[in-house]
Design a protein that fits this description.
Elements lengths: L4 H8 L7 H7 L4 E5 L2 E4 L4 E4 L2 H4 L8 H13 L12 H13 L6 E5 L2 H18 L7 E5 L8 H6 L16 E4 L4 H4 L6 H19 L4 E6 L15 H11 L3 E5 L13 H4 L6 E4 L11 E5 L1 H14 L12 H16 L2 H18 L6 E7 L2 E6 L15 H12 L1 E2 L1 E3 L3 E4 L7 H21 L1
Parallel strand pairs: 3-13, 5-6, 5-7, 7-8, 8-9
Antiparallel strand pairs: 1-2, 2-3, 4-10, 9-10, 11-12, 12-15, 14-15
Bound molecules: pyridoxal-5'-phosphate.
């Protein structure tokens, strides 16, 4: 008898970001097709995809126009590098399209395949830039607790989550993690949000004093933190820290991998939170996840010295075989065009109040200590005691239980470290689907509550 897909998965696949031993016991969930905001497993059961995959399928599933563009590009010109000044039309058109979207004047775009490799390139770019302007000691990178910037050797070190560090032998010597801007968890008893922001600002000043401004290149920051727990910056946070960064010539690297292209109610998260980024990283919704592609926006003030320094070396010695892959670029261009033609930014902003109101109602649920969100992204933090904010023992895996119960109900949500249930549906979601999502999420929470 032929082995089942489940058996072959257990025999041959190495699953990323997975409880490997738990997976060996429970086996895989196998997805087979998708349409709009719905996905279907290999038994034909329908689920509302409340996480847009991994915060990425903005335009929803089964978009034939993107499939057509990919097939056409594969037939016309399947691959050509951007190395050594060679170019291809989709990459040129994507860079020009991004120049219309991205709020960094005169930016140039360096393409990659994932958010991780793009942020890795950012680490190299900021160091290259400071080297080029005669400040080679500016190498250290500031990040924050709960940050998620990727999993390469450099970006895993920036990520502020222990599971991404333990056992990997990362070099943490040039990374400094600041306190997570998570007021619900990091705020002290009696501390106001404004007081918390002031404390974070002072911490930044002290770290710069201690490490030396001459040794610090950049602060990496997501406008709102996604994988670290859907953590919204407290009011006034970026206003407080940006002047400190600017005064010390520390670049603000805006990691928009989750936020870009409409997630927070504006095209970019930096616009929602008044950030003034030096550079920006994009991935995920750039292609609505139809193909892997990422982009780094490099401003002229960095590009010009980098160009000069690269001239002295002979080449700018960074790039991937697939930087500017024509199929990925063609799909990304069409994805952005479809977002424009269908008014997706306006749609997402218009759905946000309905979505947030529906999720806010779940804040009253007995398991939910804190409910937060903006635009079309939200998180529910589960607690054992609402008054004391006491968490459940990690071994109880409460958020995983809720995510599993939601699957039973036909809804995909994601369990994050710290017992947070994340919700981040495709941006095409409509009002009745939002009601369906909230209803299924409530039933998932109820199921777990009833089992306690
Ligand atoms: C904010 C942020 N940055 C970077 C990454 C890494 O992107 P990738 O998984 O494509 O490497 C992620 C992934 O979730 C992310 O959320």
């Amino acid at each position: 008898m032929n082995p089942t897909l489940e058996q072959q998965d257990l025999a041959h696949l190495f699953h990323p970001c997975t409880d490997l031993a738990g997976h060996a016991r429970s086996g895989p969930q196998i997805w087979q097709r998708g349409e709009g905001v719905y996905v279907y497993d290999n038994h034909g059961k329908q689920y509302l995809e409340g996480m847009a995959g991994l915060w990425c399928t903005a335009l929803g599933y089964g978009e034939k126009e993107l499939a057509r563009v990919a097939a056409e590009q594969m037939e016309t010109f399947c691959y050509g590098p951007l190395f050594a000044g060679k170019s291809n039309e989709p990459s040129i058109r994507l860079a020009a399209k991004l120049a219309e979207w991205v709020p960094i004047d005169g930016a140039r775009f360096l393409f990659g395949c994932s958010g991780s490799d793009a942020n890795d390139a950012q680490v190299k770019l900021v160091r290259y830039y400071f080297h080029a302007i005669g400040k080679p000691n500016k190498r250290k990178i500031l990040s924050r607790g709960n940050a998620y910037h990727g999993v390469t050797v450099a970006t895993a070190a920036l990520t502020g989550l222990p599971a991404f560090h333990k056992h990997f032998g990362l070099d943490m010597s040039e990374v400094v993690h600041l306190t997570s801007p998570h007021f619900y968890r990091q705020g002290r008893p009696g501390e106001t949000e404004a007081g918390f922001v002031e404390r974070l600002g002072r911490e930044l000043e002290e770290v710069i004093e201690r490490e030396g401004a001459d040794n610090i290149a950049a602060l990496f920051a997501e406008p709102l933190m996604g994988a670290g727990g859907v953590i919204l910056p407290p009011d006034g946070y970026f206003e407080r820290i940006q002047p400190v960064l600017e005064a010390n010539d520390i670049l603000l690297v805006d990691d928009e991998v989750v936020c870009a292209f409409g997630r927070t109610g504006n095209p970019f998260g930096c616009q929602t939170y008044g950030m003034r980024p030096a550079t920006m990283t994009m991935a995920k919704a750039l292609s609505s996840a139809y193909v892997p592609i990422s982009a780094v926006a490099v401003p002229p003030f960095m590009y010009e010295p980098i160009e000069k320094a690269a001239g002295e070396v002979g080449i700018f010695g960074h790039g991937l075989t697939y930087s500017g892959h024509p199929v990925a670029a063609a799909v990304a261009v069409r994805n952005l065009e479809l977002m424009e033609e269908r008014g997706l930014m306006a749609h997402a902003a218009a759905m946000a109040p309905t979505f947030q109101a529906a999720l806010q109602r779940l804040g009253d649920h007995a398991l939910v200590g804190n409910q937060r969100g903006i635009g079309l992204i939200a998180g529910l933090e589960l607690v054992a005691d609402k008054d004391t904010r006491q968490s459940f023992p990690p071994a109880d895996k409460m958020a995983f239980k809720v995510a599993a119960a939601c699957l039973e109900e036909g809804l995909v949500v994601r369990a994050l470290p710290g017992d947070i249930v994340a919700v981040c549906p495709p941006l095409i979601i409509n009002e009745s689907q939002i009601a369906e999502l909230a209803d299924k999420l409530k039933r998932g929470l109820d199921r777990v509550l009833a089992s306690l």
